[in-house]
Amino acid sequence: xxxxxxxxxxxxxxxxxxxxxxxxxxxxxxxxxxxxxxxxxxxxxxxxxxxxxxxxxxxxxxxxxxxxxxxxxxxxxxxxxxxxxxxxxxxxxxxxxxxxxxxxxxxxxxxxxxxxxxxxxxxxxxxxxxxxxxxxxxxxxxxxxxxxxxxxxxxxxxxxxxxxxxxxxxxxxxxxxxxxxxxxxxxxxxxxxxxxxxxxxxxxxxxxxxxxxxxxxxxxxxxxxxxxxxxxxxxxxxxxxxxxxxxxxxxxxxxxxxxxxxxxxxxxxxxxxxxxxxxxxxxxxxxxxxxxxxxxxxxxxxxxxxxxxxxxxxxxxxxxxxxxxxxxxxxxxxxxxxxxxxxxxxxxxxxxxxx
Length: 355
Description:
It is a single chain. By secondary structure, the protein is α/β, with parallel strands linked by helices. It has two domains: 13-155 and 261-354, Alpha/Beta hydrolase fold, catalytic domain (Rossmann fold, 3-Layer(aba) Sandwich), CATH 3.40.50; 159-248, no CATH class. The protein is built from 14 helices and ten strands. The chain has an eight-stranded mixed beta sheet, with helices on both faces. The chain has a two-stranded antiparallel sheet with strand order 7-8. The radius of gyration is 19 Å and the shape is globular.
């Protein structure tokens, strides 16, 4: 079920758009407009969360800031959204589907609505990884600019997270189709109890969902946010903001991380031939300015975006690519943190305004 849009965007019109991709997948798309004729910004969330990370009512959120700065936000819930049924369903997908269908077709629809107005994209985490493949495939040409937070073309984790995700990931995949984050939905005495128990080891916070996300990141040993950056109201409803992670997506994630590049997963299916086998090797097709962002305490993707900036600057000198690091921030808190409007969103607006 899709989340309810906060009724707090003063003077803005909220339009939900029925949106189905050409492979028959129903997604969520929503336009929030206050003034006609403004540049459009497509907001792309990460995996297991939803577009709600951009509209949190308890903080000054990114949509608030974009509207006040004179932009028209478009919110996409791609097939990895926690508000859609696909993470826990029987129909499996890969990130190739997001790169080939969800993102290009959403961008094409928006362009059909806005005409010759500029279109930007702000993408987070796995959403940014999938976007990098779309751009390297030339499927979304002519964007006015892209902001990629956390990771983009070059996913990289620590060796301990790599080891635990590879070994633990195979164990999880052999027993579960997905891993939940809300123990209340599955019960204390369920087959998921050992996973929650593992996540609680050494945790400072008593909340099981926080333990799963902040202390463990689904048993990988990573962390999704800096605990002290969250508003208490956001912290207390983490189970509403985050959904289950499908275990069958893990092999594709591992392939990407081992290669330190976004890789095509479906190599034997001709439908995906439009995607390059290795997105980094096709980065010359990226034709838009790129701002790479990351928190200085990102404990899941580490310095992936700094690595990406260094590689692109050296290999693709014609590309306008920049890197900015946000002191004291982790990963998710760059969008859901109580001070993100002051510490993070201004950097995004400056980049959009420049272009």
